[in-house]
Design goal:
The chain is mainly beta. Helices cover 6% and strands 37% of the residues. 34% of the residues are buried.
């Protein structure tokens, strides 16, 4: 008797009659909070990663084209000999468990046609190789099936993506900063997947998601294999992604468009940041104030409204709270008696890349008259800061852009000065 994957086992579905993909209250599991960080800008070349400091993010793209390019140049921390493999099944209940296990055997058969990530499998016929015909469908205001919400048809085409890649370098989970070893976290990023998907790393369930037009991220630090640093090689990494065409989320897309364009249709990234503390999110809004007219020309003063959040992984999170600004935290990877303080510094750069502020802005410093309405709650900071001098307003004719850089630093409790940069 074949052993099939139970997608409901880790999601609490199936027992009460609803599958996980038919439960509107379940939009995801183990997904990290959304943030505004541009993942693509974090991707670096192999040379840049080798020359970067411990505070720099490590990032590689897992798209088919990127993997092929890195294999040719041999300039990537991740190498995949065969790239993405794919198999289309008629429904999510008949997928053998061997398709998510790290070990390969003769029972696993993938589509003879090479799949491209990102893409939609409905744009390629898989009837001959997989025995499942799933063409694209177009409807107006009606759903392409008669099942009532939140249920979906039992005939629910399901794709299994599999990527086997090399071990990660040790620097992805441990790095050195000013002579101190620091842990790092590894995050798997999906730009978007339609419509419901389940992620497995090396045979372990990582998480699931349904928002087919939003990114989903998962912490895979405890699942991924890295080199030990002493020459010992663990097993290679196997990423398996099971994607369902229909879910209860499909009803939210009831509009005039092509239906069920299933697949991993946006880019996939794997990146690493410091784990002890890292920049989780930054939101900034610029406003114009105090408009003056000089020489028949309007001049403006600017105001920045900034919100930022520091993240910490589960191994260093303090029970009952996360991290507070300007407050010592009783944790140290080397001496539990040492207090560690983290602060976020902000610098605004002109279009010519020159700094606007004389010194980076520290919202916890009470002596800065430019800072207004500063609020601190848990690991969240919110404040307003006046931009000195006149600013250039954005318009269609003069699309002037400023750049805001946020830096997370570790503060020496005895001298109250930054000792190292943690994240940028």
């Amino acid at each position: 008797m074949d052993d099939y994957i139970n997608l409901n086992a880790c999601c609490g579905g199936g027992g009460g009659g609803k599958h996980a993909w038919e439960n509107p209250q379940l939009t995801g599991m183990h997904r990290l909070p959304p943030h505004s960080r541009n993942i693509r800008s974090m991707a670096k070349t192999h040379t840049e990663c080798a020359d970067s400091s411990a505070a720099s993010p490590l990032c590689v793209c897992l798209d088919s084209s990127a993997l092929l390019e890195s294999a040719k140049k041999e300039e990537s921390d991740i190498v995949s000999k065969d790239g993405w493999k794919f198999r289309l099944f008629p429904d999510p209940l008949r997928i053998p468990s061997s398709y998510i296990n790290p070990s390969t055997n003769s029972d696993i058969r993938f589509c003879s046609k090479r799949v491209t990530v990102p893409s939609n499998w409905t744009m390629t016929s898989h009837k001959e190789c997989c025995g499942v015909h799933d063409p694209p469908r177009y409807t107006n205001v009606q759903m392409p099936f008669d099942v009532l919400y939140p249920h979906v048809p039992e005939n629910n085409p399901t794709g299994e993506y599999r990527l086997e890649f090399s071990l990660l370098p040790k620097s992805w989970i441990w790095s050195e900063n000013n002579g101190v070893e620091m842990r790092r976290r590894v995050v798997l990023h999906f730009g978007a997947v339609e419509s419901c998907f389940f992620v497995y790393m090396n045979g372990n369930f990582v998480g699931m998601g349904k928002d087919s037009r939003l990114p989903s991220e998962f912490d895979v630090t405890s699942f991924i294999h890295c080199t030990s640093g002493n020459g010992d090689m663990a097993n290679e990494n196997v990423l398996a992604v099971i994607v369902l065409k229909w879910s209860d989320g499909s009803f939210l897309e009831q509009q005039d468009h092509w239906r069920g364009m299933a697949g991993i249709h946006r880019s996939v990234f794997l990146y690493s940041t410091p784990a002890e503390a890292y920049i989780e999110d930054v939101f900034c809004r610029g406003e114009l104030m105090n408009i003056h007219q000089t020489s028949n020309k309007d001049s403006f003063q600017g105001l920045l409204k900034i919100q930022a959040r520091i993240g910490r992984d589960h191994n260093t999170r303090i029970t009952g709270k996360n991290i507070y600004y300007n407050q010592q935290v009783e944790y140290s990877p080397h001496s539990p008696s040492d207090g560690i303080v983290y602060r976020m510094l902000f610098q605004l750069y002109n279009p010519d890349n020159s700094p606007v502020f004389e010194e980076p802005i520290d919202a916890t410093y009470e002596g800065n008259d430019l800072i207004k309405d500063a609020h601190f709650r848990s690991n969240l900071i919110s404040f307003h800061v006046e931009v000195p001098g006149n600013v250039s307003a954005w318009s269609d004719e003069t699309p002037t852009l400023y750049r805001l850089e946020a830096t997370l630093v570790r503060i020496d409790p005895s001298h109250h000065t930054p000792t190292s940069t943690i994240d940028v």
